[in-house]
Amino acid sequence: MSAGANLSVTDLRRAARHPVDFHVFAEHFTRGDVNFHVCNLSAHGFMIDNAADLQRGDRVMIRLPVVGRIEAYVIWMIDSRAGFQFERIIRFDALMEMLDRLQPNPRLRRKR
User: Fold this and answer.
1) Which of 11, 37, 76, 93 could disulfide-link 83, Cβ–Cβ 3.0 to 4.6 Å?
2) Could you say which of 3.60.10.10, 2.40.10.220, 2.30.30.60, 3.90.1150.210 is the CATH number of the domain covering 18-104?
């Protein structure tokens, strides 16, 4: 039996990504608290640009504005970047409210 992530949706790279500049402490399930810099976000996941010692399938718990605590799994790693998939999809209204808080510059926001 595999100890890695068992995700129902494996490739959602066509999902709209929104640029953000958000620092968060993630609870890594074996290494404890880890500081992440989230640089983009979608309803399905997020990307960090300061990944260190992560492996595909690693689980973390992060706290996002509006959404609260949510679990995510490492889907891919390239150099110092890592892509995570949320364990559940964030509702559209919660995503838009969260982006309003995380993107204070209205020029970064997508047209709704």
Assistant:
1) 76
2) 2.40.10.220
Q: Furthest-apart CA pair in the chain: how many Å? A: 47
Confidence band, pLDDT 50/70/90 cuts, at residue 3: low
Distant-in-sequence, close-in-space partners of 77: CB < 8 Å, separation ≥ 6: 51, 54, 55, 56, 83
Nearest C-alpha neighbor of 60 from the set 88, 85, 95: 85
DSSP state for residue 90 in the 8-state scheme: P
**3-class SS of residue 27:** strand
State pLDDT tens for residues 5-44: 555 555 555 668 888 889 999 999 888 999 999 999 999 9
Q: Provide the phi-psi class of 63: left if phi over 0, else alpha when psi is between -120 and 50, else beta.
A: beta
- The model carries a pTM of 0.80
* Domain limits, the chain: 18-104
- Residue whose C-alpha is closest to residue 75's, from 22, 1, 6: 6
